[in-house]
Amino acid sequence: MSLTIAIDGPAASGKGTLSRRIASHYGYRHLDTGLTYRAVAKALIDAGQPLDDEEAAIDAARTFDISDMRRDVLAAHEIGEAASKVAVMPGVRSALVARQRDFAAQSRGAVLDGRDIGTVVCPDAPVKLYVTASPEVRARRRYHEILSNGGEADEEAILADILKRDERDMGRADSPLKPADGAHLIDTSEMTIEAAFRAAREYIDAAL
Ligand code: C5P
């Protein structure tokens, strides 16, 4: 049997790593829906259009090539910030949600991760996970990630950015980030990725 698995959580909670691990273990396709919002933001930036141009953003949301989204190209911090701005526009959300649902429907087993997967995109998913960690732990992880990639970073500034992004994602009117009904909570603040994966597997295996 194959399932749709819905994974939500705030920035740097560990949900991306966990989602990839789950998809590879069960042989399911994976869609990082954050990349779809990032792709729209990047299209606007590249075209020199303002981020609040809803018509241009909807057009980009309908037409960008979903099979060509590259994490390395879309990873920049500024693109994440810009993505959270385009993500407040309902027209952008409905265009992207339609494409995310198509992805799930066309897959024999799919893992989708984002902010509104269990609440809006796939509310009937048989397994929903809400992955979180304290803002301080998330900031520290991001900080070490940047350092280990040879970059420079200021942990305080990262924490401030994380709090600002949480506020925008949890406070917006359309599809705010919150645990879906029936979601299993996984708090990774004091967990290794291996322990989080074990917890997720128990929920998934029980649904198979
Ligand atoms: O997860 P990531 O940092 O790539 O997401 C970038 C931004 O896209 C988030 O801060 C959020 O505003 C938006 N997003 C969303 N709904 C999703 C996935 C991402 O609103 N399902």
From TrEMBL:
Per its record, what are the GO molecular function terms?
A: ATP binding; CMP kinase activity; dCMP kinase activity
Q: Which residues bind ATP?
A: G9, P10, A11, A12, S13, G14, K15, G16, T17
Superkingdom of this entry's organism?
A: Bacteria
**One of the record's GO cellular component terms:** cytoplasm
Q: Show the SUPFAM superfamilies listed in the entry.
A: P-loop containing nucleoside triphosphate hydrolases
Domain Cytidylate kinase positions: 5-197
Top enzyme class: transferase
Q: Which CDD domains does the protein's record reference?
A: CMPK
Q: Plastid among the record's keywords?
A: no
Q: Which transformation does this protein catalyse, written as a reaction? A: dCMP + ATP = dCDP + ADP; CMP + ATP = CDP + ADP
The UniProt entry, under HAMAP family, shows: Cytidyl_kinase_type1
Q: What is this protein called?
A: Cytidylate kinase
Gene symbol?
A: cmk
